[in-house]
Amino acid sequence: MTTNDSVPVLTIDGPSGSGKGTIARAVADRLDWHMLDSGAIYRAVGYAAGLKDLDLSDAEAVARCAAETRIEFRAPGDGGETRVIIDGQDATDAIRTETAGAAASAIAALPPVRKALMDKQLAFRQPPGLVADGRDMGTVIFPDAPFKVFLTASATERAERRYKQLKAKGLAVTLTSLLHEIELRDARDASRTVAPLRPAVDAVVIDTTGQPIPAVVAEVLAVVRKA
Ligand code: DC
pLDDT digit string (tens) for 114-141? Predict the structure, then answer.
């Protein structure tokens, strides 16, 4: 238990490309709550471990790297994309590549790494509230959260969303390879023994396939406002 456990938390979990990031950001802005992008933390550690040439299957070495790496989120004043600073360097774009995503997924399967990142995530629980985006926010990190949502979407639609996002950033990708990557990553995230991707028993499951963003935002806000 943290000292901030009276601060309300809305957990938004789901597979990659389910719209979590966009929805979580929009809902946090509407509620004026803090935001935790836990995927960015795993990406940052995967990236930092890569820079240090660590063997990504060496759980203890990567866990040490997770504990030592300074990860900061800086919101630019103009409402633009939150910058992710790793040990003082801006790595916002570097952690968004598919290679960084695959490294994140690999190190996220290591129990000592997940343990090393627990306190960093709990520290985001600050007044007036927190929207926590990830895979295990409602099941492991904030099991006592009063509001829990699990977003899903078909794998094809998730690959298409990712494709548009990465293309917009000027990254070279193909839809077929993205779909393949997403299916592989889903399988790994769902089958790992520690904190596998699954909805919390008390989460509201929302299928976002074919749904416009504002409709999903409204549905998620309704979960908080209904209380
Ligand atoms: O949400 P994302 O695609 O940025 O996450 C990158 C990887 O990090 C994803 O493959 C799974 C892992 N992850 C996790 O295991 N637990 C979280 N709470 C968030 C992300």
Answer: 999 999 999 999 999 999 999 999 999 9
